[in-house]
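User: ok so my PI wants both of these folded by tonight, can you help

Assistant: No problem, let's get them done. Here's the first:
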Amino acid sequence: MKVDPPSEPGAKEQVRQLLDRLPDSVSLEDIQYHIYVREKVARGIRDAEEGRVVTEEEFDRRMSRWLSP
């Protein structure tokens, strides 16, 4: 029998949970930053799980174009 993994809470619930963890004195800019970082981390995890990654060697090769004098 296949069991589905627990579903993630929806976006509104995720924001509510985030707000509950932040201090009452948090600014709107700080809230936006936390939401932005959370989404970028989630996107990176999804990319890794779906194989959209590069090797360290490929990364070094690509970056050498930018970092070479």
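One down. Here's the second:
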Amino acid sequence: MVDYALTSGWFWPLVDILCTGVIVCRLFSMMRASTAIRILIVLPLLMAGSLLARLFGLVSISWLLNGFFGSLILLMVVVFQHDIRRALLSLGRPRPEAREEAGEHLEGESGEILDQLALAAVSLSERRNGALIVIEREMSLAQFMEVGTDVDAKVTSEIISSIFLPYSPIHDGAVIIQKGKLTKAGCFLPLTQNPDVAKELGTRHRAAIGLSEVADALVIVVSEETGAISVVSSGRITSNLDELQLKKLLRRSVESRWLQ
């Protein structure tokens, strides 16, 4: 019976159709839930599958995989668009050593702004008031400012602290610092879709990570539950900072031209 099925001409087309359905379902599941790294890992498997499909004459699978590989460049651009944009923006930036040396010597208005941000974060931390403070750098954050309240004020710890008081109508959103001015408050940020982010991190931390994955912004987060102060950049989070550590990290990460 098995030999008859293999030689009758309908067995391999049936396998072809079933495998095609499985591949389509798995691709949709992968694109929905996996990270870009997993996509890169699965590419060699798809290439091996394409070779096997040609070897056994599985027309449907070959057609599906050929179409996939034909659109591979476009797919990679879509998947890695934020990383590509960040890499292009990094061209021409000072070397990390030069940037760190410059950051350590921020003076005048720029240094005062960072001191006010650190003071505000510590004040909010002591009272367990949650906060999201975003510092715009080279990439525009205009798309995240469509929903929010115009402020256009000088950056002071008093203003920032008052925005994040529990009874403030805009305390749940983020404030955005642009060129040394507090321009917006009550803004909503995109949540990270990275499944590897620690489960214990709350909405504010996930929003900070999500924004830093799509823009080069620097985000200060104050936890409402623990009062812990964190800084998020490029999808990475540095937690449990005291005032001195926060000031040092801000001065090392923010160039004065982004605050002027």
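Confidence is low (pLDDT under 50) at residues 92-105. The CA atoms of residues 64 and 189 lie 37 Å apart. Good luck tonight!
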